[in-house]
Amino acid sequence: MSDCVIDQSLKIAAAFSDKLAASQCFDAEGGHLLLSRSETTSHLPFAALLLTTTDNVAALQEAADVGAYLVCERTIRNQPLDSLSSGGLPGSVGIFTLVANPNLGATASDAHWRDKHAPLALEVHTLMTHYYQLSVQHRFGGPDWNGFALCCFATDDDLRHRFFNSDVGRNQVNRDVSEFADTRRSPRRVIATITAGQR
């Protein structure tokens, strides 16, 4: 396992096409709510992602119209999300949804993402303030996705325009992603704000 991983925990990641529905579940369940910054979201894989723990998975699954997943949250950079106060949360989050490379399969793709890609990401995304991998362990319903990368930056401008430290770094990351991910089937990035709440 990569030396980058400093903490792991199991959570439910619930994806919604409607921000209001996601916000209502967030109010009931707590956790962390990631809302797309885009006013129109029909072009995105989801409008909101709720990361939480619950003893009523069936109700959350029913409410999450896009999909619901049991994920292992891996902390790669900074502290676990649950330990951050509202003031310590990142300003802008790029959510990258992962579909595993079919030539590797889900398990080997996940191992590559964790053990090989994570150190490279830390090297190339020098302005990234927090980095979390949400590795899908079980799909309750929804698209056959294998993970969500939360790449966090202080500002939207840093995320959009200073994601890579160089063109060389960009090429390295893009080549490596193609090793473990199906880049044609992996959905487009969602840029989101993150809010913490308590049940």
In short:
This protein has about 200 residues and is an alpha+beta fold. The chain is built from five helices and eight strands; from the N terminus they run βαββαββαββααβ.
How many DSSP E strands? 8
Structural class assignment:
alpha+beta
Q: What spatial order of strands do you see in the largest sheet? A: 1-3-2-8-5-7-6-4
How many helices does DSSP assign?
5
Amino- and carboxy-terminal Cα gap: 33 Å
Largest sheet: 8 strands, antiparallel, barrel
Integer tally of domains: 1
Global geometry: globular
Instruction: Show unreliable segments.
Output: none
Amount of helix: 25-40%
Written as H for each helix and E for each strand, in order along the chain, the element string is EHEEHEEHEEHHE
Radius of gyration: 16 Å
Determine and state the CATH class.
Alpha Beta
Please provide a written account of the structure.
The protein is globular and about 45 Å long. It contains five helices and eight strands. Strands 1-3-2-8-5-7-6-4 form an eight-stranded antiparallel β-barrel. The mean pLDDT is 95. It is α+β, with helices and mostly antiparallel strands. The protein has one domain (7-197): Alpha-Beta Plaits, CATH 3.30.70.100. The protein has helices at 19-29, 57-63, 106-124, 156-161, 167-180; strands at 7-16, 31-36, 48-52, 67-77, 92-98, 130-141, 147-153, 190-197. Helices cover 29% and strands 33% of the residues.
